[in-house]
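Changelog note: in this version the structure field was regenerated for every chain. One regenerated record is shown below for reference.
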Amino acid sequence: MSMIKKKAHRDELIGLQILHGLVFRHHSRRRLHRLLPLFSAVSGCLLLLFAVVLFLSPPVSDQTAHRRLTLSTSFKNKAGIHINAERENVFRVPRSGGIIDDRVVWTSNQSNFFFGCSNASEKFRQMSTEPRRYLLIATSGGLNQQRTGIVDAVVSAYILNATLVVPKLDQKSFWKDASNFSEIFNVEWFIKYLARDVRIVPQLPETAGKVITTRAPRKCNKKCYETRILPIYHRKRVCACLFLHFTSLDCVNAECFLVFGLHQVQAVQLTKFDYRLSNRLDMDLQKLRCRVNYHALRFTAPILDMGVKLSQRMRMKMKTNHYVALHLRFEPDMLAFSGCYYGGGVKEMKELGAIRKRWKTLHTKNPEKERRHGKCPLTPEEVGLMLRALGYGNDVHIYVASGEVYGGEETLAPLKALFPNIHTKETLATKEELAQFQPYSSRMAALDFVVCDESDVFVANNNGNMAKILAGKRRYSGHKPTIRPNAKKLYRLFNDRHNMTWHDFASQIRAFQVGFMGEPNEVKPGRGEFHEHPLPCICQRRGPRNEEDGSNEANDEDEEQDLSETEYAEEDRVVPSSNRRDSSVLRSDRQPELDDMLSD
């Protein structure tokens, strides 16, 4: 009986324990349900705080592409929350120029070892001009294209032993600039400086007789001028003159008849004189080119004074007195002529297509192919990214030499975001100061030329005439930093930039720009266009002064280009039958040429 009671009591205890366990578990679950909302709220706050920190924090180190973050909590080893957050390194442009030495971005470390040397050698023949032989030149294109023609005109006159008449500037091209030579260049200085090399006169004497007009072949060398232009001076042509006393058989500038005589040609005019002289000439002829370009061609006092003022005002903007000059060349006509596409959709294609119709001889281009081959100007944003990667911070002041930028402020906005301190001649000078230059595009271009030449760093966003002439002049002046984008290599880099870190992007920019920074020896002797690489006129200091160039070892990509492919269309004039004997057809082809106005 007692055993039965004990068993019953034990069963009761077990039942009570089970009941107590059930009650306790019920209360525990209720507590857990109460805590879960609080725990969820705390976790949400932590996640939100973490997201804010990620957004506000600076870029992650360039060496780490990804970081994994794991947060874990558990409840009695049964319930758990694992939060995994993967943070990717985003392409983010820094405000500063990085760790690059400030001296590197503003000067060339080899500039002290090179200098311009254009004096004639002892073998160079002094001026030996035929007394009645005159050469007239009609230049073509914009200011800097005409400058190349003027330089080559002096050399051509020397080859022909002719007196050079001060060149006539192009007043009928795209710019419609009525300026003459003496309104842009100091004509007295020009004549005086070259007096030992070539005789130059302001205008053709009235006694010179009739002028024979012709056109020299492109890239005509010394032998070409001697065999194809010089014989024109030796021709005898029949002329009819009427004299009352028959004291002379020389023809005069009048309509006459009855008496026939032989008259030797005295004056020849070469039209569209741009790139009519070979890129490769004898050393002394190349040095003559340098004397003309870098010494004899001096702007008039008003242009020079205003240009220097603008340069000084740029230096005052920055504590270090440094500034960058950028020839942006992103005008609508330039983009239309290049055949490139910049993502503006149908609107861009229609607008640029309409401008492109001006030049009938331009063939249709593949925009992607042109950009892939490095023939398209960089966008303002791409120029800004390149400069930042090369070490220029957002505190740098930039002078922009440019006309109307396609897309206006919207196009310039990314560049201004990277470099807020953007200036132009219009922002640096008053309207009153620019009034005497404003109506003349060549004089305004001359101001840009001076400011760019005076800059610590010059950036050319194209390979046109202004870029080439300034690059050559800056090399001649001690290799002042001159940056030309290696557009062919940078093309893919700009497209893929969002798939890499800034550190990788900047490193590749600097690697691709080697050989495109205006340093010595960027091309081998005989390579490259002479006005951009005047190697015969650059000497290297190697102990005792000598005038031999160093060995050039950098890139060979800049072969001599046929610039006739980048000229504007102009139909050849039909010579009237009565005057056809006075004109020499020196070209076998009759294809219309392109006037390279865009290269300025």
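Spot check on this record: The longest helix spans residues 2-56. The chain is about 40% helix and 10% strand.
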